[in-house]
Every structure is written in structure tokens, then in C-alpha cells.
Amino acid sequence: MGRMLNALSERSLEMGPARNAEASGHFKVATDLHGVVWMVLDRTDKRVNTIDRPVLEELATHIERFEKEKPAAVVIRSGKKAGFAAGADINQFVGASTAEIKAALDQGHQVLDRLAALPCRTIAVIHGHCLGAGLELALACDRRIAVSDATLGFPEVMLGLHPGLGGTFRAPAVADPVEAMTMMLTGRSMPARRAKSVGLVDAVVEERHVEAAVEAAFYGDLRHKPQSLQGKAMGFKPARQFAARMMRKKTAEKASKEHYPAPFKLIDLWEAHGGDPKAMQRAEIDSFAELIESDTSKNLVRVFFLREKMKGLKEGSSGVKHLHVIGAGAMGGDIAAWAAGQGLRVTLGDIKVEPIGGAVAKAAKMFKAVLKDPLKVRDALDRLIPDPDGLGIAHADLVIEAAPEKIELKHKIYAEIEPQLKEGALLATNTSALPLADLAAGLKDPSRFVGLHFFNPVSRMQLVEIVRHDKIGAETERRATAFAAEISRLPAPVASAPGFLVNRALTPYMAEALVLLDEGIPKERIDRRAEQFGMPMGPIELTDQVGLDIALDVATSLRERLGEDTLPAAPEWLTKMVEEKRLGRKTGRGLYDYDEDGKPKKISPEALPDDSKDDADMLDRLILPMLNAVVACIDEGVITDEEITDGAMIFGTGFAPFRGGPVHYARQRGIDEIVGRMKDLAGKHGPRFEPHPGWERLKAR
């Protein structure tokens, strides 16, 4: 029995003779009795492997030795449990000139070309994450063996780039070219078995079979999957031209060439040079160096570092293993499901059984879409426990209340559950608008009370606002921040204030869109203008997505608390629509009507009347009030860090990532220019456009 359990337990990584070898720089290298060299990449200075100049230079010295000594085979794998490699270290390009970038790429290509040219069999063993330059290193080997947990991908497009270390020509050469191009154009990762089906890897095995798979690759029993007829056809330009047209069309549906040039450049390169690896290599280097100097790439790289900074707000562990959620409505059910999917034991309570059942059914669909693996779906559902009697409260490390936004109801809930909380447990609210000081009134221990404001839909919106109040304990805020990071969300610490940060900034944007609609501008044109700026969804459709009832409540509350001059009054017809239960997407009718798939029925902009009478100030009327609210939040101390502010707005509202965030955009556009425009708009449309005094203090920093 003991032997069986040992066999089924998680196995250590197979490293051949390199397991006991001394590290030489970033590699452990040793040769077995058959003359097979095992090289284990295990960076001494990083938690995960990244590929940069020191790693490539060290690899080059080993390759030079192999060229002379002619080993029987070379096996390359990672010594990090997390995976093969997380890609290139983007820091190496920050601040470098175009010439320096090209020189670094040239040197990297020379190393991988020499690896690819070794006369012996070269074998990459891939587990965990194998991304970007890590995948390009694996592609330079003759064979690729993937452990079943491996995921492979080219995420460079997320940084406004395309692969730059040979991926553009090596991936289409070994895999189905259209599949390889799709990987690079979307940035989406591919699981191991899917990677094998398209030819990106040659075998998928469990860790315990790695040594046998290496032997098969060494002795020639492991062969490449032959390219399909379609794949072979892509070696000819007419076929690539046809495929390229389809790729451009699909890419344009997701991103504009003006704002996101990288995928379009990649298509151009492949169409022109896909049949000539050497020409593709030269074009790849030149294009990569050009893209990395673009504003889009610089801003998307900035967004990457913003994400890392927000992750880095986590200090220590939250200690949360068991979560209890009160309220199985849209938000509470989704919070519970997401946490269960992330590995927590979750109990979900509500005053009625029916919402809990609905939440579990919805969770099952989300798990299938996100987790994909049936066993992982099963385990996640096992962790999500219906709890109509609230028995989990006494055992939970964290209780999140997600009840309707009625302060009397929340007070009643707190009075019932606070005596049940175990020592050290935290109590949180998912309120989006109510003051935490008011909610905490009556609590015996307000120091352990915190706001955890998630955004809808929870499975897609990465931000969680960590809302503090005057009586919160420092340990409570630390643990709440750590909890958000532990469930793969990005924490943003904010003070309790009207609308916190995100709702305070989004509401003027949505409210002004309703004013424009009231002025007779077609809703499709309003949404299109915002989407052309880079917003993921126009403000009219966003209002429907949020729900007209919720949008009206939040706008009315903010206007009351911040003053009537800060926001326009809601149109009377909006109140009437709410009374008629035309609430938006959730009821199938709102500002738009919705089809069976929940998609808005929109008139094509080309079919709309002539737009010459549209407000020429439309875009600034939508965007500048949002920036004004962001500056007010910084100036009033709702949030203090400009970079976290930008990150929160990007990950909480989708603010055009290629612009680097609202504060960054304002500084690039020019603060004086924005203040002048707002004064012009105030003269035309009223005091809601008056620039906040914080602009001058922002400029002075």
C-alpha cells in the first residue's frame, strides 16, 4: 500500500545525472553512461526561469563545447517546479536603443541557430509554463516532450510585440502554420495535448515516464507529426495570402491596427516571408526592434509592470483556507465560485435555497469554461458547499457579505454573524457604494472589518478594491490584500469614500453618455467613439451590462454625496425604464435590446444618419470627466499611488491598456491642455466639467 501511495504521489522532476551535479551559473550539466548530456536550467537569481543575455551567453559556452565533444544527445529542461521558462526578461530592453535591441536579438538568434545546428539529437522536456522565449528555446531543439501539465504560448502580443527569438519562423515550421500563427496573434496558451495535436510538441507524458520518452527521442522512436496538406500549402505565397486576409479580418474584430500594430505586422511578415526562414528571421528582428520602440509597446510593458506591482502588494499569507459568503446573488455567487475554483473551501449561504442552487449551476458552467479539466471541475464543485443554515460561519477564516445595498439589512446581518465568528476571522463587505464607517457602526470589533469590492463578472474582472476605514486594523488590511492576490485577483488599496475609485471614475463617463443620448446622438455612435478611443465597451452598453437600476442608484447616491455640480441629473426616461423593469442585459431589454446569446442588437454605424451634427466634443465629454474624478481621488487621498491608480483603472474598467492608464495618458497628453479643454467644456455644458484643483498639484509632482 505504501509503495502504491508513493507511486501516485507528486513526483520530483526527472533530471537524469544532472540531479546531483553542481550548478555552473544558471545550468546544472552532467552526462550519463550513454553519452547523453542533461542540461537543467535553474536560475539562481530568480523564482522562475527567464531567458536573457546571461542565460543565452552561458548556453553558448556549453554549445561550443558540444560542437567539439559531440555528445550522443542533449536534453534541456527546467529545474523549477513552476515550469520550463516564463519567457524573456523584458527589463533587458527597457531604455535600450534600437541598435542595442537589434544587437541583443542578433546574438540570441545566433545562439539558438547553433543549438538547432548541433549534429546530435537535441531534446526539450517541457513542464508547467513554457512561454515566449522559453518556447523559442524549446523550438530550437529537434524534439519536444511535454509533461501533461505543460502549457505553451507566445504572450508577446500582450506587450505590443510578436515573438523575437525565432518563434515567427520555427513555430509554423514544426506545427500547423495557421494554429501557430493563431497562438502568436492571440497570446493564448495551449495545453500539452492540444500542442501535440497541432504538432508543436512530439509527445505528452506523465513525469514518471520522462526518462523513457527521452530514450525514445534519443533512439529515433519519437518522430515528428507530419505536416498536413494545408500546412504544406502554406509554404506557397498564394495560400498564405488567402489565410492572411482571414487573419487580418479576425484580428481587426478584436483590435485596431492603429492602436495594436503588432499582430498586423506579424501577419504581414508571415505573408511575405513565410516560405523563407532566413528572410523571416531577419524581418522578425527588424520588426521586433521597431515595435518595442512604439508608444503602444512601451505602454503595454508599463501595464505589465503595473500588474507586477499590484501583485507585489501582497505581504505574507492571508491565512484564509475557508471562506463563507453571505448572499448567493450575482456577485456573492460568483465570488464564492471563483474562490472555490482557486482552491479554497467555500460555504455559500442565503436566506433562500433557490439562489444557492442557481449560483452552483452557474458556477459549474464557469468551472467548465475556466478550468476545462473535468477532474478539476469536479474538485472545484466539491469545494463549493451550499450552506443555507450558515453553519460555515463559525469555521470560516473570512466571511464576505454580498447582500443587497441596504444599510439596515447589512447591519442586521452583522449583528447575527459577528458573535459566531471564530477568533482571528475577518469580516468583509462587497459593498460598492456604502460608507464603511457607517457599516461598521455597531460592530464590537470594527478592526477586523474590511471592504473587498469585486467587479462583475468576477471571473473576468481582475481588480479587487481593498477598502479601509478609520478603525480597520493594519493586520486586517494586510490579510485582505494577501487574500485577493492568493485568489489570482489584483488588489488596490483605497479609502472609504463615495464610489471608492472605480465607481467614482466610471459614473461620470456613463452619466455623460446618457446626456449625449438625451441630446439625440445615436447610442451606437456614442459607444463606437469610446471604443475607438480604446475602451473595451462603450458607455451605453456598459450601463446595460451593469444594470440600469444599479447605475441609477450609484449615480444618484454619488450626486447626493459629492454635490449636484459633479454629475448631470439622470434623464427622466431612465427612471421610467427602471420602473418598467427594462434593466439592461439581465432582463433582455434596456438601452439596447438583446438576443438569445445576450448580445446587444446594434445598428451598423454605416447605416446611421449623417454624423456631421454630432457633438464634436463627444470624446472629451466622455473621457475627461473620468480623468477628473481619478485626479480628485488621488488629491483627496482615496488612493495615493499614481501607478496603482492606473493599474486599478485598467484592470477594473478596461481603460485603454495601450494608453498606459488614465494618469499616464493625462501626463502624455498634457495637463495644461486637459485643464484648458475642461474649462471650455464647462463654459458650454456646465460646472460638472470644472477641473478639480488636484490637477495643479498633480502637475507639480
Automatic annotation (TrEMBL):
Residues 499-594 form the 3-hydroxyacyl-CoA dehydrogenase C-terminal domain. PROSITE patterns: 3HCDH. Keywords: Fatty acid metabolism, Lipid degradation, Lipid metabolism, Lyase, Multifunctional enzyme, NAD, Oxidoreductase. Its EC number is 4.2.1.17. The keyword Membrane does not apply. Coiled coil: none annotated. Residues 324-494 form the 3-hydroxyacyl-CoA dehydrogenase NAD binding domain. SUPFAM superfamilies: 6-phosphogluconate dehydrogenase C-terminal domain-like, ClpP/crotonase, NAD(P)-binding Rossmann-fold domains. This is enoyl-CoA hydratase.
